[in-house]
């Protein structure tokens, strides 16, 4: 299927590895030019070089730094001739017990996982609407739908973003001008963050990390963890010309883990 987005420009956060890289790779294969951001320069440049080699017809720019800072966001937007596709993605806050979290912990989580994507949306969607095309994908978490107790900081911040998007996506000035805004809710994907979470659970329980990993895998109806490539493919479809009638949705990708009907 031709997704109809060759030649467009996309901004992708946390793109050097994991789900962000999966999205970047899928869009690159469709001929989308990229502006990639991540904090680590070495990993970011390695990813950019890989994508350029695999997709010589596209342009790939990189902007290293904390996307949570206004200066880095300004550099990212300046590096992109026009933002047709925005993939909001940022590292999640650490797990823990809410009794140990300070006000600064909460402010940091909300700033990174709610306010930062909102600022990028604010800076781009009106221009998208004026051109008659735009796709915003917010990578949130399956914990928005099925909260995980030790991820309270993430649950709270990402749920705030979800509520904001529910209203924004339905504005006729955006949806009526072919600008869609959707949230992708990843469940257990085989990423560095999952590994760290499993290691933390193993330390807390005194069990071997491989035993914890196997227990988690067996609890997934699909009997496996997701891959970054399949996540990226789904993201690319939502960015395509074929997904213009879907907006304001929270799409759960979790191998069937969530047991509810709705």
From TrEMBL:
**Listed SUPFAM superfamilies:** NAD(P)-binding Rossmann-fold domains
The UniProt entry, under InterPro entries, shows: NAD(P)-bd_dom_sf, SDR, SDR_fam
The family this protein is said to belong to: Belongs to the short-chain dehydrogenases/reductases (SDR) family.
The protein in question is named: 3-oxoacyl-[acyl-carrier protein] reductase
